[in-house]
Amino acid sequence: MSVIADPAPVAPAASEPSRDDGAADRWSLLSRLEQTSIATRAEDGAVLVRRAQPAGCILYGPYWHLATGRYRLSFECRAGTAPPTAQPVLGVEIIVLSRFQIGWRDVTATELRTGRQSLVFDVPPELGADGGNEARFEFRFFHLGDADLSIEAIELARLPVDDPGKPDPRVWRLIGRLRKSWLGRRDANGALSVRQGQRAGCVLYGGWPYLRLARGRYRLTVGCLAGVPRLPAQPVLGVEILGRSRWHTDDPWHRLARIPQDTGTQLVWRDFRADEMRDDKVSVDFVVPTEMGLEAGADAPFEIRLYHLGNAELTIDAVDLRASPADDSADDPGANPGDVPPARWRLLGRLRKARIGKEGPDGVTVGRNELPGRWLSGDRVPLRLREGRYRLTLDGDAGPEIGAGAAALRVELFERRRRAGWAGLLPARSVPHFAHEFTSANLSAGTATVAFEVPPPADTEAGDMCLALAIDHFGNADMTIAGIELCREPDGDGDADGTDIAGQRPAQGARASRRKKLVFIGNCQCSVLTQAFNQTESLNRIFEAKYHFVQLLPNLHEFAQRDIEECDVLLIQDVDLWNSFPLRHCIRPDTETIRFPLVRFASLWPFDAWNGPGDREAHDREAPNSTFPFLDGLLGRLRRDIPDREARFLAYRALEREGIVNYRRLHALEERRLLKIDQTYDCRIGEFTLENFRTRQVFHTTVRPNWQGFNLLLRSILKPLGISGPDPLSQTADATLKVPQVPVHPKVARDLGVKWADERTRYLAFGQELTWENYIRRYIDHYG
Question: For residue 331, is pLDDT > 50?
Fold first, then answer.
């Protein structure tokens, strides 16, 4: 899998076209969005993706500024045959700065056949361009892996002030995105059925593509029909919600076993009896805490797991997640943690009975004359417990034992440790964790209780501890167990059950606190560096990385201040804007700081606005949204001097007019500057660039190095951190890094000895492959 999993802004600005058809508040978007590697663009401009392609983002962009108001995003898409037919095949997300999720909608193939679909959303004042903010809006389209798709039109319209429409709610229909284990069977519509006699265990998990959520309150609703339970007083369905769960793996053994990676932080566990299902549905409320939310820059995928507890036949036909509207939530998402029930596990129904004893409607019984040994056990549905103190309670009754005061039963907890590699197909290793013996008198009192501790994980990437329960009968008393319940005891901090705003997990869990926290401050190059840290397993075990843009928006101060105050290492890109960074006063005196360079290369683009005078007229005409993110100062000057467009193009091609920048001298200056960077930062970025730029494409734009350049930059950061090893980025990262590309002027390439760039070289821009001439003529035609 590529390190760069999700699209991120790849340029300081992106495009907004001129208004279409004379409409002042309507824009055509399809040609302005960039496609990912799983999609192709047809000659008519439609974007195509095959069902066999991996689920993920198809289109993203254009990073526009939008004025405060209400908007409608409309799109036309055709879908091929899509089993399961009732599940979504296309997802649409509206997000700002990759952090503020404004809207989400998923669409089924049936809905697409009815015609144009739309998503209505609001631009609040704090994100509006008229408020002076640099908030850039992005529209992402996701292939959900269930059908061939052809996206044929995308349009954005600003709605009148008196429009009666309301923003569409954020609802995720997830059952089609969840992976199925070996348990149960799916029907044509994606519903899953599992028989009562099948062993207990996880039946659905995921979803894919990874689910990332903004902070706030959510409700998960599971449509579930339960048969008659064998133990009516015991649960039949378990629902678990995990954060920071990178459950997906390309490991062939995990895929063969149909089991997820056992990682993540448990936010919620709920189990439900058959009589607790209302209208064949159950709901789980939970809160996404700030440190896991999109706004905080966290890369913390969420996972839903559903468990068959072996107590009844189940049919699961819907798994829907709904975000609470902003006006239904308190300003602080954790204002009412008591709304979330405390952590509780009802365990009897999920345990398997051995040969001794028998089950009845009131529980499980065993006679004193039966052979001693294992009575109840269960490890198919693991107990995922974070560090803390727990109390296990057995509810039942017992007759007098043979031998007064002798132990009548033994309760044991085993830690389940998943094996690595192909051995993951074998049962998890069981390591004894805790054991306690009860007498008959303990149980005959009505309830028998015992407390135990779960220590913090030794491995910072191990996540929560997974335990299994077993009960042994010693054969010296009649006894009945009507219920087994596990509860987490208070932490002693004034919270009734030790919950945080997520209902189950402290704001700073053990796993997070043991990793070094890194915070990058700089331009968009830092977003690539942050993803490399967070999505490289060896680095992610040691570091948790965050990124904040050096031109920090006011509505991001809360998150940036928190990160800067808590970080162990602050990584500062050497740019002039750092001198005016508004939160420099928040840096702790003991925080380690590391400076690293802004990587740029001007030689191949001597007329780029990054390297000299820009195209002021083009900027003023479209600001704050530019169709061409890299404006050309020479073309701006020629526009004033040569009105005829064809003559202007020929003059630009020839580069023979007076006053044109001496790009050979500029390259000589670049050579000295790059070698100076190597000296200053103890790296070889400049040396690599100068040795290779003539034979291969080491930069895609002035400020966008290829994957090798980013690896050299990462090495310069990892060295003072004391880390060595293989490069985090692979060549597959270039699929994202090279969007967009700026063509190299053929004459500049010839004069500098660049062998890979000429008139025929094709570059990725505006979702197409364009030659240098195509790109320049489009620039001239667009700005007139």
Answer: no
The C-alpha atoms of residue 60 and residue 82 are separated, in whole angstroms, by: 23
- Would you give the distance in Å from CA 770 to the centre of its chain? 32
Q: What amino acid occupies position 242?
A: L
Three-state SS at 690: helix
> Does residue 163 come out as left (phi exceeding 0), alpha (psi in the -120 to 50 range) or beta?
beta
State yes or no: pLDDT of 511 exceeds 70. Answer: no
**What crossing angle do the helices spanning 645-654 and 772-783 adopt, rounded to 10°?**
140
* Residues 6 or more apart whose Cβ sits within 8 Å of residue 632: 607, 608, 609, 615, 779
Q: In the prediction, which pLDDT does 492 show?
A: 52
H-state helical runs in 475-536: 510-514, 525-535
AA identity, residue 507: A
Give a three-class secondary structure readout of 270-300: EEECHHHCECCEEEEEEEECHHHCHHHCCCC
Of 484, 221, 505, 204, residue with least CA distance to 340: 505
pLDDT at 524: 86
Instruction: Tokens 């389209």: give the residue.
Output: 141
Specify the DSSP class assigned to residue 632: B
Q: Report how far apart, in Å, the C-alpha atoms of 541 and of each of 4, 9, 417, 463, 512 are.
A: 18, 26, 18, 11, 10
Question: Which has the closest alpha carbon to 226: 317, 346, 321?
Answer: 317
Percent of the chain with pLDDT over 70: 87
Looking at per-residue confidence, does 555 or 522 come out higher? 522
pLDDT at 459 over 50: yes
For residue 57, the cross-strand partners are 142
Residue whose entry in the numeric block shows the structure tokens 């975000």: 323
CB 426 within 8 A of CB 484: no
For residue 731, give both structure tokens: 């060549």
Q: Which uninterrupted H or E stretch holds 747? A: helix 746-751
**Integer CA distances (angstroms), 756 to 399, 696, 759, in order:** 88, 6, 10
Contacts of 297 (CB under 8 A, 6+ apart): 99, 530, 546, 547, 548, 559, 563
Contacts of 347 (CB under 8 A, 6+ apart): 378, 383, 469, 484, 485, 486
The answer to whether the beta carbons of residues 198 and 167 sit under 8 Å apart is no
Average pLDDT of 117-138?
85
